Structures are given as C-alpha cells and as structure tokens.
C-alpha cells in the first residue's frame, strides 16, 4: 500500500513542477526577468490583475458604483419558488470563498513573501471584484432551468459562447469535477484536524490521528456529507445560510478583540504591509516578485475571482436581473479578502514571530500552527490564549466544512451539464464521497499525501486559464446587460436586449419568442 502512495506523491510532485511553471512563466526566463519592473510580473499575474483592471475600467468601476446596491439586494433578498434567493447564492459562494485558505493561504503567503504579500492580495481583490461581477453576470445571462432549479456557470456559458458546443460544456464540467476531486482530501482532513485541535486545546494533550476521536469524527462527517450531498442545492443552502454567518461573525469578533488588545501595533502593521510590498526583508526572500506572486496566488486561492468556480452559485439564484447577482458576488470578494483575509493578516503580521528568538521554530511549523502561534503571541501569558485558539479552531473547521459541501454541490451542477440522468449524478456524488473518505483515511493512517494538497495551486491556475478567455468572449453581453441595468427603466431583460438567445429571461418576461 505504501508503494501506491509513493507513486501518487511522485506524480503529484511532477504536476507541482508544472504548476510552478504556469505561475512563474516567463519570469523564469533570464531575458524577461531582467526587464525592469515588467520582469517581476508573470503571465498569470498579468492576466488576472490585467483582466480585473480592464473590466474595472470598461464597467466604470462597477465594484464601487454598485457596492451599496449589492448590499441592498442582499438585505431585501427573499426566497422564491424557482431556484434560490440571491442571498442564499451569496452564502453558498461565501461558503466556498471563506475556506481554510483564508487562514492557511494568508499565513503561507506572509511566511513566504512577507507582510507585503497582503498588499498585493488587496490589489488583486479590488480588481477581482470587477472580474467576479463579470463572470457572475455572464453566468446569470446564460443560466438554464431544470425543473424548479436554475443551473449555470462556467460550463454553461462556455458551451453557449463557443458555438453552443456540447463538447466544450462537457469538457469544462469534467475539468471542474477533477478540480474539486483534487481539493476534497485536504478539505476533509482539515475538518477532522480542526476537531482534533479543539480537543487538544480543551484537554491540553496531544491526540494521535489514529485515535477514536478522529475515527468518530470521520464517521460523523461522512454521514453529514451523504445527507447533504443527496439533498440537492436547496438543502445545502439551508446549511450554508446558517453556518456562514456564524463562522464569519465568530472569526471577525475574535480577531477584532486581538486587534483591540494590541492597538498599539496597528501603525506598525500598515507600515510593514506598505513598505515590504516593494522591499521585502531578506528573511522572506528579499525579492519584490516573491511578495507579488504570493499575494496574487493566495488571493486567487481565497476569493477565486476569475476562476469561474463561483459562477455555479451565482447562476442558481432567481434574480430580478442578471447584474443583480453580479453586484452580490462582487461583495463576496470584498468580504473574503478585504475583511477575512485582512483580519488573518493582522494576526500573523502583528505577531512578529519572524522577529523573535523562536523564528526558526515558527518557520518550521505548518500554516495553522503558525497562525495559532502568532495569535498566542498577541495574548502572552493570559488565559485568553486558550479561548482564542479554541475559537479559531472552530472557525477553521467550519471554513473547511462549508467549503467541502460547496465542492460537492458545484460538482453536482457540472455533472448535470454532462448528463441529467439521476444515475450519473448519483455516481458523481458517490465518487466525491469516496475521494473525501480516501483523503481522510490516508491521513488518519499516518500516510503522507501532502503533495496532493499542494495541487490546488495547479487546479486554480488551470481553471482560471480556461475561464478568462471566455469572459472576454462574453464581455459584450455583460456590457449590454450592465447598460440596461444602469437605465432602471422598468423594462425586463430579454433576448432583444442581450443580443443573444436567453430563453430563461424571455420566460421570466412572459415572452415565448426568442431572439
């Protein structure tokens, strides 16, 4: 059995090399790297941030103009007979966005690229809000209706934009399902490890991964996953409508207390972020490009703007206009990066562990222990340490749990793009559950599949490369929809306005003739 896992790790290691190439090209070429300023920007970063800048300018800073309206849409959102409400779609996508990456990714980015990496997260998120608006609006425009549910997203608008090619829709669906399968093992074990961390915090003892606690947690997690995954997207949103606000409030309040207790460190936090965004310390590599790459890479892993992975949730909403969900999903990026990731950055940076005598020990820790150690440093010698570690571990577990459920749900939507057969959809559900169980069991057994966890970088950039060209192809429809949305003349959005056949919107408008 060990030989099998060695083979898997070896394959994953090779793919990780390809992933690094995708992220760093062409900065790994000497002639390009020697170009002043430009030589620090890889093709991936140029595409991701460049696309965000393009969509921002073309839509006249839509993320600012429609921010207040997006909040209003969320506040006044109501459940409908068809699909799910805009707020339910928001919480579903937030369940995916606000995942373990908001702790692990941010901590890893700062540990590798220095405090300046957080600055580049902010930059990528600001422009990423416009990208999220674009892809979510596009998902709404080309969504489809099956029974009383709306389905759509990357695979659906990809099919329509590329000459209604069924092959494209199937291919993109398969890519997403593979993407989800690569992420399942890590997310499943993140939930179980959070339970272990909570137990260790409460008991003060180290609990082996093969203990009864981990086995019981594994069984409970699998039972819950089965119940939710076979209940459809509406049942899932009932779970995320409750868990997402709870975990967000707990996390925000916990970190805000840490910030208030360490109020005197706030000026240094901003000084470190802004100065080291361009001149990182030698301990972090001392290269501007490292902070830049880490910030954009981990920002993408966290808010997923430009990947198209959140578009399935956006399309599921029964919105009054395609652009309303675009506004809502743009706020999702703001919440994820500008709020949650920034709070994580506060803890890691204000903890200053790389400036203490324990620097070598800190760098050798995994990212969650790194983060907990930084949080402990902010409450030295107080009983509040235990409470903070406990609350953060609870949030981490909820982050991973909701993310896991989101992957299952979105995989189901992609499965329905391939085939509407219940047998096929159930097979995909079962496959997801098997991979989750596989990842957890290997870790409980003490087998190292850490290389598999690192494949998320490759999956993120691969699916982004698939999605971004489609956003440019469909951007003309987004612009038409936005122009109609800005008019607010009371007319319904239809095929005539979109300039392309949109049966769902014609049906909502009470029209039978398509464009």
Which features characterize this protein?
mainly alpha, 74% helix, two-stranded antiparallel sheet, 515 residues
Structure overview:
The longest helix is centred in the middle third of the chain and has 38 residues, at 166-203. With 515 residues, the protein is an all-alpha fold. The radius of gyration is 22 Å and the shape is globular. A two-stranded antiparallel ribbon has the order 1-2. It is 74% helix and 1% strand. The protein has helices at 2-24, 30-33, 43-58, 62-65, 67-75, 86-97, 104-113, 116-141, 154-161, 166-203, 212-229, 232-261, 266-276, 288-303, 311-315, 322-351, 359-364, 367-377, 384-418, 422-444, 450-453, 456-487, 495-498, 503-508, and strands at 144-146, 149-151. It has one domain (2-77, 85-480): Orthogonal Bundle (Hydantoin permease). The chain has 24 helices and two strands.
Question: What is the topological layout?
Answer:
Blueprint: H1 2-24, H2 30-33, H3 43-58, H4 62-65, H5 67-75, H6 86-97, H7 104-113, H8 116-141, E1 144-146, E2 149-151, H9 154-161, H10 166-203, H11 212-229, H12 232-261, H13 266-276, H14 288-303, H15 311-315, H16 322-351, H17 359-364, H18 367-377, H19 384-418, H20 422-444, H21 450-453, H22 456-487, H23 495-498, H24 503-508
Antiparallel strand pairs: 1-2
Helix pairs in contact: 1-22, 3-8, 3-22, 5-16, 6-12, 6-16, 6-19, 7-14, 7-18, 8-13, 8-14, 8-16, 8-22, 9-10, 9-22, 10-11, 10-19, 10-20, 10-22, 11-20, 12-16, 12-19, 16-18, 19-20
